[in-house]
Amino acid sequence: xxxxxxxxxxxxxxxxxxxxxxxxxxxxxxxxxxxxxxxxxxxxxxxxxxxxxxxxxxxxxxxxxxxxxxxxxxxxxxxxxxxxxxxxxxxxxxxxxxxxxxxxxxxxxxxxxxxxxxxxxxxxxxxxxxxxxxxxxxxxxxxxxxxxxxxxxxxxxxxxxxxxxxxxxxxxxxxxxxxxxxxxxxxxxxxxxxxxxxxxxxxxxxxxxxxxxxxxxxxxxxxxxxxxxxxxxxxxxxxxxxxxxxxxxxxxxxxxxxxxxxxxxxxxxxxxxxxxxxxxxxxxxxxxxxxxxxxxxxxxxxxxxxxxxxxxxxxxxxxxxxxxxxxxxxxxxxxxxxxxxxxxxxxxxxxxxxxxxxxxxxxxxxxxxxxxxxxxxxxxxxxxxxxxxxxxxxxxxxxxxxxxxxxxxxxxxxxxxxxxxxxxxxxxxxxxxxxxxxxxxxxxxxxxxxxxxxxxxxxxxxxxxxxxxxxxxxxxxxxxxxxxxxxxxxxxxxxxxxxxxxxxxxxxxxxxxxxxxxxx
Amino acid sequence: xxxxxxxxxxxxxxxxxxxxxxxxxxxxxxxxxxxxxxxxxxxxxxxxxxxxxxxxxxxxxxxxxxxxxxxxxxxxxxxxxxxxxxxxxxxxxxxxxxxxxxxxxxxxxxxxxxxxxxxxxxxxxxxxxxxxxxxxxxxxxxxxxxxxxxxxxxxxxxxxxxxxxxxxxxxxxxxxxxxxxxxxxxxxxxxxxxxxxxxxxxxxxxxxxxxxxxxxxxxxxxxxxxxxxxxxxxxxxxxxxxxxxxxxxxxxxxxxxxxxxxxxxxxxxxxxxxxxxxxxxxxxxxxxxxxxxxxxxxxxxxxxxxxxxxxxxxxxxxxxxxxxxxxxxxxxxxxxxxxxxxxxxxxxxxxxxxxxxxxxxxxxxxxxxxxxxxxxxxxxxxxxxxxxxxxxxxxxxxxxxxxxxxxxxxxxxxxxxxxxxxxxxxxxxxxxxxxxxxxxxxxxxxxxxxxxxxxxxxxxxxxxxxxxxxxxxxxxxxxxxxxxxxxxxxxxxxxxxxxxxxxxxxxxxxxxxxxxxxxxxxxxxxxxxxxxxxxxxxxxxxxxxxxxxxxxxxxxxxxxxxxxxxxxxxxxxxxxxxxxxxxxxxxxxxxxxxxxxxxxxxxxxxxxxxxxxxxxxxxxxxxxxxxxxxxxxxxxxxxxxxxxxxxxxxxxx
Lengths: 520, 653
Hints:
The complex is a heterodimer of chains A (about 525) and B (about 650).
Chain A (H helix, E strand, L loop, with lengths): L1 H17 L6 H25 L13 E6 L4 E5 L3 H19 L9 H20 L3 H22 L4 H34 L6 H6 L4 H18 L8 H8 L2 H26 L1 H27 L4 H21 L3 H32 L10 H4 L1 H14 L6 H16 L1 H26 L16 H19 L2 H21 L5 H4 L5 H4 L9
Antiparallel strand pairs in A: 1-2
Helix pairs in contact in A: 1-2, 1-4, 2-3, 2-4, 3-4, 3-10, 3-13, 3-18, 3-19, 4-5, 4-10, 5-6, 5-10, 6-8, 6-9, 8-10, 8-11, 9-12, 10-13, 11-12, 11-17, 12-13, 12-16, 12-17, 13-15, 13-16, 13-18, 13-19, 15-17, 15-18, 16-17, 16-18
Chain B lengths: L4 H7 L13 H21 L3 H26 L3 E11 L2 E9 L1 H24 L6 H20 L3 H19 L6 H32 L4 H11 L5 H17 L8 H4 L5 H10 L4 H8 L1 H5 L2 H22 L5 H21 L3 H29 L18 H15 L5 H15 L3 H26 L7 H6 L5 H16 L4 E2 L3 E2 H16 L9 H29 L2 H9 L1 H8 L4 H49 L4 H20 L1
Antiparallel strand pairs in B: 1-2, 3-4
Helix pairs in contact in B: 2-3, 2-5, 3-4, 3-5, 4-5, 4-11, 4-16, 4-21, 5-6, 6-7, 6-11, 7-9, 9-12, 9-14, 11-16, 14-15, 14-19, 15-16, 15-18, 15-19, 16-17, 16-18, 16-21, 16-22, 17-19, 17-21, 18-19, 18-23, 19-23, 24-25
């Protein structure tokens, strides 16, 4: 029942909000915050109960009920290490995004928090659903609140951005729905009983041709959501126009649903299709790394810059996954969390300054480090986390991704590694332009530094950044079974050998004992 | 292995106690200072932050000395794993330290020079508004530098490597409200990142070919896996060397170091002269075995080192600012170290690394004391100085001693280390390297005494206001100067060829295998005679340089002008630093910005426009569809009739 509680507590909170008096903003705010906090606290028992040694899904936490038996629709929830990490991230970022909206949202407060909590339920359900129908319901449920959050509480071009966001994702969803129905009927025909249970589709082996088409349909939906180059163009608009909380959730977890869907549905259901398209996707991912970084550098709006940096980071992450070895996939999964923390944090940083100055133009700032030293410190830590400085979380993910890629192909690793240089270029550029130099704009002189509430939104993210950077082992152990599963599945369908198979000296672990006890 | 167990095994061993087992305390002291100063410095500790940091550094020095003593006594390297840091699949990377003789030398240099410079900085930074910030970053730098030299695998080294880069960035940009400082910091970081790109790839390639990135495994397995001179080992070592050229400011990535002088002078002395910039030299010396397997890479290292030594020295001829000249001097001296590595004389390179740390730190701190007298943070134009010997006798003495040391006059420290490099190059048959090195030695003596003469000799050329404020620095600043000057004098005596070759004997175990691989050392016939005559020759060259400089800038001040007018192209080329910065600006930087604009253009004009065209197509189609809905009943009736007819025909057929 724990998973159900975690998914639906935000929905209950949202329902409760509906009965609160519209005039009392404070009460609405606090109720929303309490709901988000409660959900975050519920993650503690989840973290304690989760069986970290489970291969794949943890059976003891799984839930299974019939929903529409005649059509085989079930209410199935499953959790594995990766989902666990993402659920905790979602709850954390939802809490943060409620907290960061206190001052920014003064209009239609009730609807705002209602939608924010509804969104949380949608995302959590997407991560936990183990039934394709249920998954699709949650997947679509995410779309609607986000559409309104951007469209109603966004900035100048919010309508354009929200419609763009909606059309892109709806287009992908439509294709995915067709594919879902196809596999559903195919499975029905093959077995004689209708079911949307994911487990069944894992066991089915569709013909290679069918897999290619199905994979393409699923992948397109996920690629738009991630977003992978060249499906990314909705992202800068959505991010730039969304309110801060919307951007945090969007970057932090909503984009991860795309990658997650890729790992949980597209890859294991259609491994032959994945193997067929892997080289093409790898090329897109590598282009995305460089292209996203270059475009980020060309922006003059900080929020757009961070949005494009996401394109680069997601490219890196997908490239790591496509290395199809444990190092690369774990790196990609860790980077999913890292990106949520650092990019989510950077959107908070941008939001904080926007609340004070009502502008996001880089040229409007400069010299803020002298006026807002605490702000500058948080900004710098998040920036360094984003560019993968060792000791912070970003390095762990990037290092493992590059390690995995290097095992696959030297060229891919070399191209991906340019992201390390380019990331430093645009991040340090924007940091210098905003924080350093003399204070040029008069309006910046009187800016106040962070208040306690703002520190409370940033501090947990920064603490996680340090924790993952310094002691990533617990995280790695949590996700490793999930990564191993993918490797196992893909190893059976992989056609292209990596260069290390041909190189005589490479035997990674076998040739040299890695056990540290032998070292002395 | 479980997470916590590593720590337990590290501490509860049945082995006999070794002092070097305390090595974890070395980075811990400055780490504590960083935390305290960072969290409480601004409000609570304030002007005690400097003392706190210095005491922490002193603690690190004491523990380091204990470790060094232990290593020297037992001769046994010490390797310890504390816990698994990154562990996924087969890749299990422990966080651990490795202490051997090479580490011992580095530990001594970092902790000793560090302590002295921290002490100096208490006086130098006094009164600066960001005092606490300075003393938060400086111990952080020390932590990272210790990690760099102590790490027992390449990734741990890389943590320190990037960490010192970060501290360098933060401290170059210490005066962040000035554009040039912020710009210089960013430039340093990005140029270093280009190097790190190579480092990362080299490290990963090493892992996939060797199966480990730990130093002990590398030493054990590399000769079995890589045939000498094979392509793979050459590629790996060259990629790692790219990292070294970034961190240690060699061609082609040296451009950040002169700009890095925007930081406060103690930063320039500690980070950009004595310790961080030598990280590349240390890294290659640490991986000496790999480089010995790749003769081509060694040749590249030596060539880059020799060219950098000469190029930077000739640029230093014409620069006007004291710290900038010292920065080019550092680049040049680092070039010497790489030259030594390139000819396989790893111990000579490390020896020069150590003596250079003493005299270059002393030079920088003396220059800092001049800046202090000028009430100047940035740099001082040496043509606006002069005659300072009267106002600052201690500073002048320290500067003179270290200038003599860098020029290579016996019995000062620089003579022993530099001469050894030249001799090794000559003995190894690298006559061209030797020739370049000797030329650079002349240049070194010349630009150093040009700097000395313009600063301390003659009459003061600055404003009257400045002159009235000139003063000797306080005790807390000149005392460190004296210590470093003393070491610049005696630091070379630890290795006197023939008489007292202690330093090499100490380092021998580290490089023994590499020397063996390189084949039997070619013995020069009558080596002793050669050694003495070559030494005499280089002393002669250095003295010529010194006299030439004195002649040009004290006796005949018109001579430089005559030279500049007679050979304008040479003079201008040196003055403009061979236009290398401009060339990078015009190609790399400009190309990068063009690529950014191109990407932005693609985004707007191709991807978005393409999608908009698609959307327009859909709209167009729907408009065609809309036209069918005319609203006239007769049209609909006609459509129904046509439909029925088609249906009927279909059924009949």
